[in-house]
Amino acid sequence: MPEDLAEAIWTEKYRPRSFDDIVGQKEIVSRVKSFVRQRNMPHLLFSGPAGTGKTTLAIVTAKTLFGEAWHANFLELNASDERGIDVIRVKVKDFARTRAIGNVPFRIIYLDESDALTREAQQALRRTMENYTRTTRFILSCNYSTKIIDPIQSRCAVFRFTKLGKDDLAKIIERIAKGEDLVFDEKAKEALVEVSEGDVRRLTNVMQGAAAVAKKITTAMIYSVAATAKPQEIRLVLELATSKKFLDARNKLFSVMQEFGLSGLDIIKYIQREIPGLKLPDRKKMQLIEACGETEFRMVEGSDEFIQLEALLAKFAIIAE
User: Fold this and answer.
1) Which pTM was predicted?
2) From CA 104, how far away is CA 281, in angstroms rounded?
3) Going from the N-terminus, what domains does the chain have, and what CATH number goes with each?
4) Degrees (nearest 5) of the Cα angle 33, 38, 42?
5) CA atoms of 294 and 316, how far apart (whole Å)
6) Positions in the chain short of pLDDT 50
7) Measuring CA to CA, how many Å separate 233 from each of 142, 171, 173, 230, 274?
């Protein structure tokens, strides 16, 4: 079986099938559920980070409203793949102008990653939303609502999704571990929650990668599959740098980068996370974080990442004096 197909099947197996199955985003789910109960709803705009349940909630809404006929009444498009005005004029308009099958008076068009639509396409979408209100409701999903033009935002009920907390992620881990007969120790669960960063899609992918190796999941397997450095190794680099052991810190940092295949920007992100835990005055921690920001900017502008990381460690040693 192809790897991408196996991943799709594995993910679909644990996709929530009703509102009660959805973990997290309780207030948003409650409000959308009330719309569905009335069999009437406005256009919806789901905004928030990846892997927080936007697509899942849209699909559950369609399944609950239309039952077995949900496929015929639900059009899903990824706007980042088809972002031009022709998509709105042809695909969306053709679907929007036809009546729903069943006793619900409208169909649903779900536009994923709608912040990738060009401004011209968004203007055309605005007109389509106005003209076909009787027969169609739109659910727009985006990472950044600021990239959606104001006329569209004003026509939608806006729901802002947040990253899932540790308790919510723990529930998902337990559900999948039970279904796949996986064994986790507590530290492995904590590592999985940490590397997923509130993204359920990333969490399921890391779990699947680890489960392909063994049924007993360890912390080392989690970090290896996620291609993420262990926090204690980054912390050791910082402790060496702030203890004036510059060469040891440099060698350890480059060793971690090589072992896990990390980029300079990845390292900056991990360093920034570990700074609050250092035994330094708050003012010095603020200076270290400022140094991280400056180094990241230089990397984004094209500077050599190894030279910039060496300079950052040197600055850490100077600030810590």
Assistant:
1) 0.78
2) 62
3) 3-160 (3.40.50.300), 166-226 (1.10.8.60), 231-320 (1.20.272.10)
4) 75
5) 13
6) 1-9
7) 35, 28, 25, 5, 10
